[in-house]
Specification:
- By secondary structure, the protein is mostly beta strands.
- It has a single domain, classed as Lipocalin, CATH 2.40.128.
- Helix content is 2%, strand content 49%.
- Strands 5, 6, 7, 8 and 9 form a 5-stranded antiparallel beta sheet that branches.
- It is globular, with a radius of gyration of 18 Å.
Length: 187
């Protein structure tokens, strides 16, 4: 709805709407069609319109809370976005029980999306630490982090650092900070 005039606009999409967010002065709609994940850019001017739709086969969002999505602008009409993903067809509430498989990174260039890569979880250790070091309930299980020119993926108890090389995000290093639970005496 145009807040100045009160006029409504309808925009047809090839997917449902799970997330609405900003891309500088424009917008992005993220959703699925049941099996695949879609990113649709929307130009927000006098008459809003779809510019591009990018899909990832067999994927869904791995984190539906607001902190899961992050956009790093590079110029007025370009930037990089990150979003946790997992296998397709998984209900949103599963993010509280299962971790995300990876953080996907896309380039926005004039509201046209292109693949930059993903940073994946490799954690095979899965322990319940009763929220002593971390807890999915309050921080979510995954998020992209852009800090001082660096790219990170928080994936459960892992932090994976990546770097943009030749328009691709590549893994540099990782740390797993899952605490070692102490065994009770006598064992």
């Amino acid at each position: 709805m145009n807040w100045k005039t009160g006029a409504n606009s309808a925009i047809p999409l090839p997917h449902n709407v799970d997330r609405l967010d900003a891309l500088a002065n424009d917008g992005i709609v993220v959703g699925t069609n049941g099996n695949d994940l879609f990113f649709t850019s929307v130009r927000l001017d006098q008459q809003p319109r779809v510019v591009d739709t990018y899909s990832i086969k067999g994927a869904s969002q791995g984190e539906t809370r607001s902190q899961g999505f992050f956009y790093k602008p590079e110029a007025a009409d370009s930037g990089m976005l990150g979003l946790p993903i997992t296998g397709g067809g998984r209900p949103g509430y599963e993010q509280l029980r299962e971790g995300s498989a990876s953080i996907v990174f896309l380039k926005n260039d004039g509201l046209r999306f292109s693949w930059l890569g993903q940073l994946r979880s490799e954690s095979v250790r899965s322990q319940n630490d009763d929220c002593k070091a971390s807890c999915v309930d309050w921080y979510g299980n995954a998020r992209p982090i852009f800090a001082r020119g660096r790219i990170f993926a928080l994936l459960g108890y892992e932090i994976v650092e990546g770097a943009l090389k030749l328009n691709r995000v590549e893994e540099l290093r990782r740390v797993d900070f899952l605490p070692q639970l102490q065994r009770s005496a006598g064992r």
